[in-house]
Design a protein that fits this description.
By secondary structure, this protein is of the alpha+beta class. It has nine helices and 13 strands. The N terminus is likely disordered. Bound molecules: ligand MTE.
């Protein structure tokens, strides 16, 4: 068990999502032994075989300098300038969730072993034609990068405000050419336990998977981030490409993506597989819907001494509330 001295603004590790799940490991293993998880585990194994084949190739190489460095800093999109004090870069890049490298916040050094070149991104499932593309070719195809300052609200009740660099996800969806019948885009992180030691923790349902509806993915706020603070994305924040959906809890923002699959079936994501009673598909921020183990009414901005109120959809309701009209039977806020 990791022992660390929290800074004033940190919540105790015992309250952090993953630690809760960690503590639930016994229950999970018991469930698996009883067979309740076997269906999910079997489905996951099929998915992992393919992911391992892909990522084995790209993670075999030694880390190389980021050849996209010349694209940064991109111009700021003035529509998304943020309205809160910016989080200090050294906080946002040293206080991270990236379970592939450990189930605690201090993974930034460990994650430096992630080789970010070569890096191949695959588009498959319900698309006109499956294809794999090298990240630098994808960046070239996505056109000019832009900078957007977004708020980020973790389900653990800490938050930050950071300048991401990247491109609208809508552009990537158009590039992928999904079939009209596709309803969801499923995003998957690399899988290589030799490099990411957290992936040896077999009770987690690796690889990390998250999903959005096509309507969410093409909403103007949904962003593919390839950089932060005017520089290429550091490994710990999800190099070379990650999702940013600022109206949702941070666990939706899957890092270091190798695969976008299109489907007409709603995916079950990493945290939902582990603890469906606490983490659902929609995961929209709502101060009035508590996590089963803590309130979501307020949040602790990294580096600040005072907590602040949490806002519905993290303050982005004007952009996204319409996406969820009439969906009263869904657990939209978990
Ligand atoms: N993506 C992967 N692959 N693995 C993870 O553990 N953690 C999620 C999300 N994406 C995670 C991930 C969680 S819980 C949060 S809050 C954000 O990444 C944290 O992003 P940051 O470290 O850049 O602040």
């Amino acid at each position: 068990m990791l022992i660390k001295r929290p800074r004033g603004w940190e919540i105790p590790e015992s309250q952090a999502t993953p630690e809760g799940v960690w503590l639930d490991r016994r229950r999970l293993l018991k469930g698996m032994a009883a067979g309740s998880m076997l269906t999910g585990a079997a489905a996951l194994a099929g998915c992992m075989e393919e992911a391992e084949a892909d990522s084995g190739k790209q993670l075999a190489a030694a880390p190389a300098a980021d050849p996209s460095a010349g694209l940064y800093p991109p111009k700021t999109n003035m529509k998304y300038r943020g309205d809160r004090p910016m989080t200090a870069e050294d906080l946002a890049t040293t206080y991270n969730n990236f379970y592939e490298f450990g189930s605690h916040k201090n993974i930034w050094r460990a994650s430096q072993v992630l080789p970010i070149r070569p890096w191949t991104v695959t588009f498959d499932g319900m698309v006109e034609e499956p294809r794999s593309v090298a990240i630098d070719d994808l960046l070239a195809a996505m056109g000019p990068l832009e900078q957007r300052v977004y708020r980020h609200r973790c389900v653990e009740a800490w938050s930050m405000t950071v300048p991401w660099a990247g491109f609208p996800m809508k552009r990537l969806i158009e590039y992928a050419k999904p079939l009209g019948s596709a309803k969801y885009v499923v995003m998957q992180t690399f899988q290589n336990p030799d490099i990411a030691s957290g992936q040896k923790q077999y009770w987690y349902p690796w690889p990390y998977v998250e999903g959005l509806t096509i309507a969410e993915a093409t909403n103007e706020l949904a962003f593919m981030a390839t950089g932060i603070y005017g520089k290429p994305m550091p490994a710990q924040n999800g190099a070379p490409i990650r999702l940013v959906t600022p109206w949702k809890y941070g666990f939706k923002c899957v890092k270091s993506i190798v695969r976008f699959s299109f489907s007409d079936q709603r995916p079950v994501s990493f945290w939902e597989k582990l603890q469906a009673s606490e983490y659902g598909f929609w995961a929209n921020v709502n101060p009035e819907v508590s996590h089963p183990r803590w309130s979501q009414a307020t949040e602790q901005p990294l580096g600040q001494s005072d907590r602040i109120p949490t806002l519905l959809y993290n303050g982005y309701a004007e952009y996204v509330a319409d996406l969820y009209k009439g969906m009263n039977n869904e657990r939209l806020f978990m």
